[in-house]
Amino acid sequence: GMSIHCRLGDRHTYKPSAIDVDGIDCSVPDLLTGDYMLSLVYDRAFVAESIRVRVQGDSGKWQDDIDILYFYRIRVQASERLIREDVLDKLVSTRAQLEDEYAEFKIEKQFDGSVRFKVRATSAYFHEYGIWPHGDKMLSCRFEVDDDFTRFWLEKQDDGSMRILTKATRRYLGEYGEGVLADKLISTRFEDDNGYTRFVFEKQGLVGYPGPAARVVAITEAEAAVQKRLEDLRTLAEKKQEQALQNVPNVTKLYFDEYDQPLTVIGS
């Protein structure tokens, strides 16, 4: 007989919960909050009537894996390379493998279940330049805007990795990291479902705690302060010793020139 499936949006096709005299039950699966087109698909080819539905999904279950009190590094599962904001062109890529603050991100949870990624070094936010026809679909920090192109949904996979979906375009981020033409840029140009579109989140230091560079500066400043205090104490001790010698009778003091030769001998 003819197969009947439910399709939510353009990605999620699943079997109905029930088919009986009351109709076809297309109970919506556990998905992200959003507006979707719900359709019936016969033999996975012919699409019957469609309606637009509002899904109030439990997207927070993916957010629960993210601790907003910490910075994160994000590694591409397939290549095991860290993503990073490049200093010169502000594109997000895996071209330079440096474990610095350009490769650490604060993840800010949004009220709708999405997240924003803030680069620790620059405080700039990830943005997919996906406006047709001018957008290049690149992930970067080139544009300082607060819109749905800077908001992303996290979809946890069975292996513990995450897929990252741009809210505005509903496209998945991925690294072009394989082949002779691979540029190692993060974008939504290729929406394959493989290890290059899956990411591993690695927890780093606490938000609000100074990073490595700041800690070095702080340590240097602290050492300088301690050195200055020691010098002040040494000067104060020498002055007190000088005053004590001046107050003691019958003391002979020697005064030396720059060649350590005695100039005069003064006695009481």
Topology:
Layout: E1 4-8, E2 12-14, E3 18-20, E4 23-25, E5 34-42, E6 46-55, H1 60-63, E7 70-76, E8 84-85, E9 92-93, E10 105-109, E11 115-119, E12 127-128, E13 139-140, E14 152-156, E15 162-166, E16 174-175, E17 186-187, E18 199-206, H2 212-246, E19 253-256, E20 262-266
Antiparallel strand pairs: 1-2, 1-5, 3-4, 5-6, 7-10, 7-18, 8-9, 10-11, 12-13, 14-15, 16-17, 19-20
Q: Using the CA coordinates, give the radius of gyration.
A: 33 Å
- List low-confidence stretches: none
What helical percentage do the residues reach? 10-25%
| Number of extended strands | 20
List its salient traits.
single chain; 268 residues; alpha+beta; four-stranded antiparallel β-sheet; 15% helix; 33% strand
Descriptive report:
The protein has two helices and 20 strands. The chain has helices at 60-63, 212-246, and strands at residues 4-8, 12-14, 18-20, 23-25, 34-42, 46-55, 70-76, 84-85, 92-93, 105-109, 115-119, 127-128, 139-140, 152-156, 162-166, 174-175, 186-187, 199-206, 253-256, 262-266. The model has no long low-confidence stretch (mean pLDDT 78).
Short overview:
The chain has 268 residues and is an alpha+beta fold.
